[in-house]
Backbone:
């Protein structure tokens, strides 16, 4: 089988500029981890459940995993779907792949057959690494269905209980280590997932050079060092959790990563107390849950110095509560898996931390805010956010149509965000240019949900819109024109669950209508649908 090679290429003039500026230093994930392990082998690196690995132990495991993958016939350049929850095994798996030149494709535990089959096909993946059972879900039948849709997916390895013989990740830890060639820092290290704002997620190639620069810069801005103890409360494979500065940034700084199996206050607060966590990151809905839980919690959270909030717009009313309630610094983070990351500085004035989503972290982050015609928007005026820079991609993998839509001729990435920018460069996020639902930090494509609804035999037409929600930020509402006999809203939701999609993509609300309001050119007016909901003129 001839598989497309994964590349991410900047024009040579830009690549030379980024090297000269010292952004790209020729580092690789495997090499810098080795350096940390040699410098402080006995320092604690990973804490997850009953597992506590030092840097020396972690690095030795990475060697064994790297050789184990290669011994099983997975070759450098191959892609492997990684769908692990917040378990310690996540780290030797992905760093082992980095060291072997194998590209992990980072998937979330919530993804189901539809998404995983799509990722397998687009990535041309040859393998899957996952857990047999998590949060009540059995992954084996799903993976078998994915393999039927993607025959190249022949290597399957499991963590967890009841692992089929010969398919255990634990066996890799017994592989004798060998010296492996160093990787090229300019080659792709992994494939990350886009937010999926125009359908199923696109695949984002990130190189060693560009991603490690983003880690290094994030570490500096967020003031991480060897004393840092980072709690991964959000999914380990999420870009926010990995790199802003996240688990990878913490390891780069020589600190300690603590994994929480769930983001609930009960589990997360207990770990903050036990491990003396200094920094963690949450999405706005989770921040609300934590803030409401603090007054009745008996846990000692005094070690926490920084709470980062990102992934969705944080409203000022919630932002103001963070520092008085938790006694730590609020840091807003606005970024994307494609690259650009914005931070509010730790010592920023309150009005900056409360009312903005920060400013670009690199001196060479180029930002344009433009109107609908592509002309520069006036300072402080809403506009479309475009960006390019030393860690912002130039192309998606294996998706020419998306590349044509998403990138300008001169290499700027069209983020799809509507923002305003002030004189100091701080950005305020105002929404999305497309009908895209940001449900508690999980990005949901209205188009994708509509496609599933239209496959229902009793659905004539469907339109999905985002609706403001005080807890989630946004929730989804599906307007449905039904055929007789008309299904009920619970029946529509139950049917969506049979489609093999993540639970967060099932519409929160289903409203039946006889017709959709139309714009002057005959398109469905989503604005009028949202207005009808606000006015209470629709019924579920």
Residues:
């Amino acid at each position: 089988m001839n598989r497309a090679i994964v590349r991410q290429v900047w024009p040579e003039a830009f690549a030379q500029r980024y090297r000269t500026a010292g952004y790209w230093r020729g580092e690789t994930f495997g090499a810098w981890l080795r350096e940390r392990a040699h410098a402080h082998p006995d320092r604690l690196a990973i804490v997850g459940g009953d597992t506590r690995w030092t840097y020396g132990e972690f690095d030795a495991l990475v060697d064994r995993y790297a050789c184990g993958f290669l011994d099983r016939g997975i070759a450098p350049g191959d892609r492997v779907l990684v769908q692990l929850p917040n378990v310690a095994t996540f780290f030797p798996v992905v760093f082992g792949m980095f060291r072997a030149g194998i590209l992990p494709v980072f998937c979330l535990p919530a993804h189901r057959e539809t998404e995983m089959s799509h990722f397998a096909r687009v990535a041309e993946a040859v393998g899957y690494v996952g857990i047999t059972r998590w949060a009540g879900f059995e992954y084996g039948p799903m993976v078998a269905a994915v393999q039927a849709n993607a025959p190249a997916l022949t290597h399957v390895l499991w963590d967890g209980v009841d692992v089929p013989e010969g398919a255990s990740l634990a066996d890799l830890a017994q592989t004798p280590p060998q010296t492996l060639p160093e990787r090229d820092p300019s080659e792709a290290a992994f494939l990350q997932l886009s937010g999926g704002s125009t359908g199923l997620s696109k695949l984002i190639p990130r190189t060693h050079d560009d991603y490690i620069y983003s880690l290094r810069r994030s570490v500096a801005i967020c003031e991480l060092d060897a004393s840092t103890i980072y709690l991964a409360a959000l999914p380990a494979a999420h870009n926010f959790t990995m790199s802003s500065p996240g688990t990878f940034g913490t390891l780069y700084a020589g600190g300690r990563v603590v994994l929480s199996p769930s983001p609930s206050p009960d589990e997360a607060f207990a770990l903050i107390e036990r491990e003396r966590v200094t920094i963690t990151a949450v999405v706005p809905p989770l921040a609300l849950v934590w803030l409401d839980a603090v007054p009745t919690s008996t846990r000692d959270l005094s070690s926490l110095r920084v709470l980062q909030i990102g992934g969705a717009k944080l409203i000022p009313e919630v932002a103001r509560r963070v520092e008085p309630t938790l006694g730590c610094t609020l840091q807003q983070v606005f970024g994307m898996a494609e690259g650009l990351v914005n931070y509010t500085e730790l010592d920023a004035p309150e009005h900056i931390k409360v009312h903005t989503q920060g400013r670009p972290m690199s001196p060479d982050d180029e930002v344009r805010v433009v109107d609908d015609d592509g002309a520069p928007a006036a300072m402080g005026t809403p506009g479309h956010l475009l960006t390019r820079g030393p860690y912002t991609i130039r192309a998606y993998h294996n998706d020419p149509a998306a590349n044509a839509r998403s990138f300008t001729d001169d290499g700027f990435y069209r983020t799809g965000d509507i923002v305003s920018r002030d004189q100091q460069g701080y950005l305020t996020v105002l929404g999305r240019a497309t009908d895209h639902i940001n449900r508690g930090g999980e990005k949901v494509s209205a188009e994708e949900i509509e496609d599933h609804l239209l496959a229902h035999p009793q659905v004539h037409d469907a339109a999905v819109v985002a609706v403001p929600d005080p807890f989630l930020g946004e929730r989804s509402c599906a307007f449905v024109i039904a055929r007789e006999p008309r299904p009920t809203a619970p029946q529509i939701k139950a049917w969506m669950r049979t489609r093999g999609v993540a639970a967060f993509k099932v519409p929160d609300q289903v409203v039946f209508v006889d017709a959709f309001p139309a714009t002057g050119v005959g398109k469905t007016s989503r604005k009028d649908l949202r207005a009808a909901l606000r006015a209470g003129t629709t019924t579920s």
